[in-house]
Design goal:
heterodimer, A: alpha+beta, 6-stranded mixed β-sheet, 26% helix, 36% strand, B: mainly alpha, 82% helix
């Protein structure tokens, strides 16, 4: 269990963390998600004791650890670039945390060997004990780093962009493997990432950070379906951002005229509205109503087709299936009609909400709008 | 078919990356001629002159009482200065490479100072500082401590001249290696001392070894700074390079070159040891780059 209370950290004049508070439950795996410079790595290093906060406190299992030195915290830390001891074999790397203990608390040689063997089998690297780090692949190195961190039986496991330096396929494999491993060990874990897919797939809960502050904390579904701020909505997945004005029951979102969202308080207002590319429904001009658009660019990405559309001078991104692409025979220069199935509003007066617009209106309804 | 295609492509690329034959021969020939003229020929001359009057006079020159004293003194000076500079160099490099602090650039400039100051000047500074007419001279004389024209002066001058070798070798290496491994060790529960012995030192050992070899070669061969503070007292304050000069000025060429040949052999042994270690541990050294 980790508690972070009102932590602040400045580097020179730069505020890396501005009053951050966070609670991580026992046995939970939490992802800290944010762009570079959002303070996520600083927060992780403060948890590890590699940095110390200017103000605020850090508690492990209820006990104050704010000023406890890194070597006494009993945390496991996995670095983005592994930081394996390059002159030591895999065995010696994993055993390091045990062999540097004082004689009184150091396990016997046989116990250390046994524990290293166990960890090697857990990270699926049996038989590589005598290799040097330079003889391993990136994925293997990262698993050695993880075994080394787990060898000291840490109270919490901290991972700094653990898969950031790996290629896409290995990253995906390791991600699932880490999730399974965590389900077995139930160790309290925090990992930092800038990859939203990684955060949503691996973590029990996700903490979204931006500019030294926490934007939202929630389960992956919460974060994706009910983003608290425009930043979170934009950061999770591709999104089209449009200006929006609501007047007399009509929401003008970019080139779209939509029914205004139902909301309490003032009816009129303005702000931003977001539409996900896969929520843009594409039709032939004869099929239904919406905004007229011209296809600018078509990219086929496996089962999906990504399109750039020019709608009244504004460039929007849309995604559709291969099947729909074939039906409409989409090609650059072609005219289509576009209708947003779902729009998320963030209005200047603080109101936010989604409106679902299932099914495109028939041309008659469009005329009414 | 595919293999043939690859082979053709390979040979074409080979041609694209290499010069015409006559250019290659010319450049190789120039390099070898320079090496022969400026390195090999002088080295052979040293041994040739030393053995000009036969092996017996060569041995006689080497077993001379003053010559042996010069060898002993050189070994003593190197034996004191090299370990001290290893300690200073490692500490200085550690500070510069792993920490940020005010005055870091001043420290780096100070480390480089002996490279930019003429050795004669650095010797002279010690004379002005510790000599009888110097700043601290009367006070030292009153205490009965003799530095200039004695062994302590030789050690100080050599220490100053050879100071940058270890630190300069280590700073780029340690900067490139960063601090992540040390951080990993600390988080795993290692004390500062253990981190140094088990992580930092093993990572820099090859760089340290090169630094020590260079430092040792310079400590034994130093002439300028040592010449100023030595006083040239035969059998007492003459190191090997100074002994060579004295003998040469007395037209005792065989003896001068005999001692010079010993110095040259020390250099050759140093080179051989370095190459042998590089060859023996090439795999491990290659791994250090990661």
């Amino acid at each position: 269990m980790i508690d972070v209370k009102n932590v602040r950290k400045n580097f020179g004049g730069f505020a890396a963390l501005k009053d951050v508070s966070l609670h991580v439950r026992q046995g939970e795996l939490v992802a800290i998600l944010g762009p570079s410079g959002s303070g996520k790595t600083t927060l992780l290093r403060i948890l590890a004791g590699l940095e110390f906060p200017d103000a605020g406190s850090v508690l492990f299992d209820g006990g104050d650890a704010t000023h406890v030195a890194a070597r006494d915290r009993q945390v496991g830390f996995v670095f983005q670039h592994y930081a394996l001891f390059r002159h030591m074999t895999v065995f010696d790397n994993i055993a390091f945390g045990l062999t540097v203990r004082d004689r009184a608390s150091r396990p016997s040689k046989a116990e250390i060997a046994e524990r290293v063997r166990h960890l090697l089998s857990m990270v699926l690297l049996e038989g590589l004990a005598d290799r040097y780090p330079s003889q391993l692949s990136g994925g293997q190195r990262q698993r050695v780093a993880l075994a080394r961190a787990l060898a000291i039986q840490p109270r919490v496991l901290l991972l700094d962009e653990p898969f950031g330096a790996l290629d896409a396929r290995v990253r995906k494999e390791l991600r699932r493997w880490l999730r399974r491993l965590h389900d077995e060990l139930r160790i309290t874990g925090v990992f930092v990432t800038h990859d939203q897919e990684e955060a949503l797939e691996v973590a029990d809960r996700v903490v979204v950070m931006s500019q030294g502050q926490i934007e939202q904390v929630g389960t992956p579904t919460d974060i994706y379906d009910h983003p608290a701020t425009p930043f979170v909505y934009q950061f999770l997945g591709n999104v089209n951002s449009l200006s929006c004005v609501i007047r007399d029951g009509v929401a003008q979102v970019g080139a779209f005229n939509l029914p205004a969202p139902i909301r309490a308080g003032t009816q009129d207002g303005s702000g931003v509205a977001f539409v996900r590319p896969h929520d843009l429904h594409l039709m032939a001009p004869s099929e239904g109503g919406g905004a007229a658009a011209v296809v600018r660019h078509v990219t086929v990405l496996g089962p999906l087709v990504r399109l750039e559309l020019n709608i009244g001078g504004e460039i929007l991104e849309a995604e559709t299936t291969r099947q729909r692409h074939a039906e409409l025979q989409l090609a650059p220069g072609q005219s289509v009609v576009v209708w947003p199935r779902q729009v998320r509003f963030f209005l200047d007066d603080g109101w936010q909400g989604s409106s679902r617009l299932d099914g495109a209106p028939n041309p008659a309804l469009r005329a009414a709008l | 078919m595919a293999v043939a295609a690859v082979a053709v492509a390979g040979s074409q690329r080979h041609r694209a990356l290499s010069e015409p034959r006559w250019v290659r021969w010319l450049l190789t020939g120039l390099a070898l001629a320079t090496f022969g003229l400026f390195l090999l020929l002088p080295l052979l001359t040293v041994f040739g002159e030393a053995l000009a009057k036969g092996v017996s006079s060569y041995w006689a020159a080497l077993s001379d009482e003053d010559a042996l004293a010069a060898v002993r003194l050189t070994l003593l000076v190197a034996g004191i200065t090299v370990p001290l500079n290893v300690v200073f160099g490692v500490i200085a490099a550690w500070c510069v490479a792993k920490f940020d602090f005010a005055g870091k650039s001043v420290l780096i400039s100070l480390i480089d100072l002996p490279f930019s100051v003429s050795p004669v000047i650095s010797g002279l500074i010690y004379v002005l500082l510790f000599g009888l007419q110097g700043l601290l001279g009367p006070w030292l004389a009153a205490l009965g401590i003799k530095i200039i024209f004695a062994v302590p002066g030789l050690v100080l001058a050599t220490l100053f001249v050879t100071f940058p070798y270890v630190a300069r070798e280590l700073i780029p290496l340690m900067e490139e290696q960063g601090t992540e491994e040390e951080e990993a060790a600390v988080v795993l529960g290692a004390s500062g001392w253990r981190v140094f012995w088990r992580v930092t030192l093993p990572n820099i050992k090859w760089g340290l070894l090169y630094g020590v070899l260079l430092c040792n070669a310079r400590a034994m061969g130093e002439f300028g700074a040592v010449s100023v503070v030595s006083g040239h007292i035969r059998g007492q304050t003459t190191t090997m390079p100074l002994q060579v000069e004295i003998l040469y000025n007395e037209y005792n060429f065989v003896a001068a070159f005999a001692i010079a040949s010993v110095l040259a052999m020390l250099a050759l042994v140093t080179l051989a040891v370095k190459s042998a270690l590089e060859w023996r541990f090439s795999k491990e050294i290659a791994g250090m780059g990661h």
